[in-house]
Write a structure and sequence with these properties.
This protein is mostly helical. It has 13 helices and no strands. Keywords: DNA-binding.
Length: about 200
């Protein structure tokens, strides 16, 4: 635990503390939501003084906004999937997206994004902006040119699967082995991707 002096004068280069705070915030916001979560509980989970949370993020709203980011791996995973041969893109996209939910390093971020978007109009606006930014990025935009509607439908399909498996935790969905889940979902995702914009 840092001393009071360390909390008042944290090093701007101390990314480890910032990362621990974000990880703790994602867990707290993901399980309890924005209103029920306190900065003190996040600081305690992260093992830092609450003043350090304020230093990095300013306020609870600032911290919450910082948790509403796509995992850094997300855009690259999507671009890689869409760079596969056309007939493999459905399977690759399903695997890439659902892997973000399976991986402990990114699952918290995905959970906070989704739960927040479902429960808050402001968070929904933020998620729309993130997705629009992803779609507007030069790599993904070039890969989905002429089939943006199909890509949006494919991602909507995958988001629904994610909600039932990882948020609502529907037992039949949770019980499916990951590879079987991908195999069952991939054909529908592929059908969406194969549809050109009208």
């Amino acid at each position: 635990m840092p001393t009071d002096r360390a909390a008042r004068q944290p090093s701007a280069r101390d990314g480890a503390n910032r990362d621990r705070i974000l990880a703790a915030a994602r867990r707290r916001f993901g399980s309890g939501g924005l209103r029920a979560t306190t900065l003190r509980s996040i600081a305690a989970d992260a093992g830092v003084d609450v003043a350090l949370v304020a230093y990095y993020f300013g306020s609870k709203d600032g911290l919450f906004a910082a948790t509403l980011e796509l995992p850094h791996e997300g855009p690259d995973a999507v671009a890689s999937a869409l760079s596969a041969p056309a007939e493999q893109q459905g399977e690759q996209l399903a695997r890439a997206y659902l892997s973000l939910w399976e991986d402990p390093a990114t699952s918290g971020q995905m959970l906070v994004l989704t739960r927040s978007a479902l429960g808050s109009e402001a968070a929904s606006d933020r998620v729309r902006t993130l997705i629009s930014t992803l779609l507007g990025g030069p790599t993904v935009a070039a890969l989905v040119a002429g089939r943006t509607v199909g890509f949006a439908l494919a991602m909507s399909h995958l988001a629904g699967v994610a909600v039932t498996r990882y948020v609502a935790r529907l037992p039949v969905m949770v019980a499916l082995p990951f590879d079987e889940l991908v195999a069952r979902v991939a054909p529908a995702v592929q059908a969406h991707l194969d549809t050109a914009d009208s």
